[in-house]
Amino acid sequence: MEFLKRRRELVDDRLVEVLDAVEQPELADELRHVSLSGGKRVRPTVTVLACETAGGYPEDAVDFGVGIELVHNASLVVDDIIDQSEVRRGTTAAWTEYGYGPAIIASDGLLGEAFALFSSDPQAMQIVSEAMVELGEGEATELAAQPTNEREYMELARRKTGALFRAAAELGAVAADADAYTVEALGEYAERVGVAFQIRDDVLDATADADDLGKPTGQDAEMDRPSVVQVTDLTPEAANERAKAEANAALDALSTVESGNTDAREYLEDLARFVVVRER
């Protein structure tokens, strides 16, 4: 675990540096509240591990990892407003703590800080921009044209969650100056991990205890939100099996990558297996 701890510390230390450099005090407080209140840092960890798997060094990918975490946090601020979720990561959601206007400004501020970290690399900018288009289309679909079957749900999960995971891994590969094949293979791995993550998230919302999860449960049903349990014929048990199938496909994609760091690769493999059994 020391291996992962070191990489998370790199991300957390750089994240604090970025937030400490925000000049406007109120905005800085809001960004810290959102970004430093916890979180598993899954996406930036994927960025760093993908970089190492592709032959780079963890330090090469830290800025991109922090950037993708900030994009993710910005999307959570908006999600909580839409869902009227008052708790995030065991603490008050941004809109609950500061109000709607400041929360939206905080989301914008997070995106601004993120794109400042990507701006030095045109390929990174393209990767993140494409992921945000997918994310926006996914959010719009969820609100306006809800899926009604498994195929449509899987497309929503790919856009809403898989796309940002894909970007996280592709950014790591870009940081390592990997070839196009490696960028694509790591991207497919991560996208499928993201879809598996989303399916498991939906199952936990339907079956877990709120205190154990660290956020309200039953939100999908209450908000009439299209979860895998709501819009498919899958039971929670069958949905978990579907998530495992995605995780196995992720492992297949990862197996095609010639690894520069076998420890990093093994942790990516562990992540694919973990997301389908996690309890938080």
Automatic annotation (TrEMBL):
EC number(s) given by UniProt: 2.5.1.-
CDD domains: Trans_IPPS_HT
Record bears the keyword Transcription: no
This protein's record includes keyword Nucleotide-binding: no
Pfam families the UniProt entry points to: polyprenyl_synt
PROSITE patterns associated with the record: POLYPRENYL_SYNTHASE_1, POLYPRENYL_SYNTHASE_2
Transmembrane portions of the chain: none
Keywords: Magnesium, Metal-binding, Transferase
MF GO annotations: metal ion binding; transferase activity
Named cofactor requirement(s): Mg(2+)
Database matches in PANTHER family: GERANYLGERANYL PYROPHOSPHATE SYNTHASE, SHORT CHAIN ISOPRENYL DIPHOSPHATE SYNTHASE
Family to which this protein belongs: Belongs to the FPP/GGPP synthase family.
Protein name: Polyprenyl synthetase family protein
The species this protein was found in: Haloarchaeobius litoreus
Source organism phylogeny: Archaea, Methanobacteriati, Methanobacteriota, Stenosarchaea group, Halobacteria
